[in-house]
């Protein structure tokens, strides 16, 4: 079902206000309502357009509804915020909105975790490490990472808000878009190549020493990775490293 | 490191710590960014970049999934970047000690974020009725309070980390007994192992992962040998 066409578009200042609030959607994140208060905070500028305005009963009821428990990937909360703003301004029944909110949590969390945290962020990290390994300056390395990452990050937020508003309660259709569903495996392939490329290049630049030390370190890193992979699920690699480095620092100081 | 340095670095740590989750999650808090900025502030952006890249290899293993507890890299990157830039006069040990300090702060930072989340829950519980009645002031107030609490968390964490760990680092460096290439190799080897393990964990289900990784690795080794 598509949203009713009678609802006028949100004015640009309202959309801008919602967008900037989305950047702080997780500020009040907690273990009880999760990102729920943030959703209410972000939808609020749109709710002022309900009959009665800021002091109306509809505004207060809608804000209370939108500030309850909610969970999603932070960037994809934009989809929820757009859709919920549309549903509230369309005058959808409260029970329907509440069911929609509940149903939206799982897909927005799973899609965002897979696409952003498990694929795009590591891809950007490895890209920056490749740039670093190829002797890029500090400014170029930092800009490579920030521009690439935020091109994806901000585009996702802008798209999510627009798609949510356009589709309203039917926004699930947008989440099935091939670009969202199929990009993770494709980006994963690119990230795998970049990971392989980054490792020797970055190690070479950090060590800045002879080939013997470089290839010894690379072999050690591969052996260590095999051990960490075997330990997977029982110990986190970075925590194991804290133990190893603590022992090494103590050895170097006390020897 | 003087008082002014600590104040400015603590403010930077607060801002970057805030970026981790609360605002704007633009990944300014990633080590390759945060440590480079801190290094630049201490007068050596290249040193900041070197340790930032090392810490980034560790950070690939720690992704900010939902309610899980993960290290807070914003404040930790400031500590790492500042310590390494400041300790470059020592021939051996600055990378190992700076990375260890940063990893320790990242670990404590993860714990401190959990405490802020508990504080947010406590505030929200006390204002449940006001939220349920649709109070605009309360909804916005909770959001702002969480933002401010997280900012102060990062500032305090960075300030305490700088003040407590820098003297320890200097003491360790003055009695450092391992040679420079071996010290660097230990740190980078550990970072590389973590990064490679993380890449496998994240992408092993991607069809053809092994071949794509090996193609990349061969290309990287080839570039190193050629240059």
Number of helices of chain A: 10
- Overall structural class of chain A, as computed from helix and strand content, comes to mainly alpha
Number of domains of chain B: 1
What characterizes the major β-sheet of chain B? none
Secondary-structure element order of chain A, N to C: HHHHHHHHHH
Observed structural traits:
heterodimer, A: 255 residues, mainly alpha, 2 domains, 10 helices, 75% helix, B: 227 residues, 9 helices, globular
Please provide a written account of the structure.
The complex is a heterodimer of chains A (255) and B (227). The radius of gyration of chain A is 23 Å and the shape is elongated. Chain A has 255 residues and is an all-alpha fold. Chain A folds into two domains: 197 residues, no CATH class; 46 residues. Helices cover 75% and strands 0% of the residues of chain A. Chain A contains ten helices and no strands. Chain B has one domain. Chain B is 78% helix and 0% strand. Chain B has nine helices and no strands. Chain B is globular and about 65 Å long. The chains are: A mainly alpha (255), B mainly alpha (227).
Layout of strands and helices, then pairs:
The complex is a heterodimer of chains A (255) and B (227).
Chain A: H1 12-22, H2 36-47, H3 57-66, H4 77-90, H5 94-133, H6 138-167, H7 172-175, H8 178-207, H9 211-231, H10 237-254
Chain B: H1 3-21, H2 31-41, H3 45-59, H4 73-86, H5 94-126, H6 128-132, H7 136-174, H8 180-203, H9 209-226
Helix pairs in contact in B: 1-4, 1-7, 2-3, 2-4, 3-4, 3-8, 4-5, 4-7, 5-7
């Amino acid at each position: 079902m598509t949203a009713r066409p009678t609802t006028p578009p949100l004015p640009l200042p309202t959309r801008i206000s919602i967008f900037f609030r989305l950047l702080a959607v997780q500020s009040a994140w907690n273990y009880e309502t999760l990102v729920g208060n943030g959703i209410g905070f972000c939808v609020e500028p749109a709710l002022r357009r309900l009959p009665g305005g800021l002091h109306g009963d509809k505004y207060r009821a809608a804000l209370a509804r939108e500030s309850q428990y909610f969970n999603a990937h932070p960037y994809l909360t934009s989809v929820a915020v757009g859709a919920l703003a549309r549903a509230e301004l369309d005058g959808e029944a409260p029970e329907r909105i509440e069911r929609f909110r509940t149903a939206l949590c799982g897909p927005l969390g799973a899609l965002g975790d897979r696409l952003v945290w498990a694929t795009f962020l590591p891809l950007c990290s490895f890209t920056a490490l490749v740039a670093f390994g190829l002797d890029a300056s500090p400014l170029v390395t930092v800009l490579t990472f920030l521009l690439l990452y935020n091109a994806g990050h901000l585009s996702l937020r802008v798209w999510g808000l627009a798609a949510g508003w356009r589709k309203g309660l039917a926004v699930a259709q947008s989440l099935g878009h091939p670009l969202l569903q199929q990009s993770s495996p494709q980006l994963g392939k690119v990230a795998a190549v970049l990971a392989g490329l980054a490792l020797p290049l970055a190690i070479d630049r950090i060590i800045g020493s002879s080939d013997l030390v470089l290839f010894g370190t690379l072999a050690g890193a591969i052996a260590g990775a095999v051990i960490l992979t075997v330990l997977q699920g029982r110990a986190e690699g970075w925590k194991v490293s804290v133990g190893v480095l603590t022992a090494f620092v103590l050895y170097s100081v006390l020897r | 490191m003087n008082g002014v340095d600590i104040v400015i670095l603590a403010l930077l740590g607060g801002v970057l710590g805030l970026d981790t989750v609360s605002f704007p999650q633009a990944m300014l808090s990633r080590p390759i960014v945060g440590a480079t900025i801190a290094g630049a502030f201490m007068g050596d952006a290249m040193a900041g970049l070197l340790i930032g890249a090392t810490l980034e290899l560790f950070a690939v293993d720690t992704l900010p999934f939902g309610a899980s507890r993960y290290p807070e890299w914003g404040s930790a990157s400031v500590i790492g970047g500042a310590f390494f830039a400041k300790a470059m006069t020592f021939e051996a040990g600055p990378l190992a000690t700076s990375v260890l300090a940063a990893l320790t702060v990242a670990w404590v930072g993860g714990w401190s974020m959990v405490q802020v989340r508990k504080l947010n829950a406590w505030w929200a519980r006390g204002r449940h009725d006001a939220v349920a009645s649709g109070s605009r002031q309360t909804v916005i107030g909770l959001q702002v309070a969480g933002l401010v609490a997280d900012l102060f968390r990062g500032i305090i964490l960075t300030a305490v980390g700088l003040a407590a760990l820098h003297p320890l680092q200097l003491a360790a460096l003055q009695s450092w007994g391992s040679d420079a290439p071996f010290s660097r190799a230990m740190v980078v080897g550990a970072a590389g192992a973590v990064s490679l393990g993380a890449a496998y964990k994240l992408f092993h289900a991607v069809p053809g992962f092994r071949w794509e990784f090996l193609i990349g690795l061969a290309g990287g080794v080839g570039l190193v040998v050629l240059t």
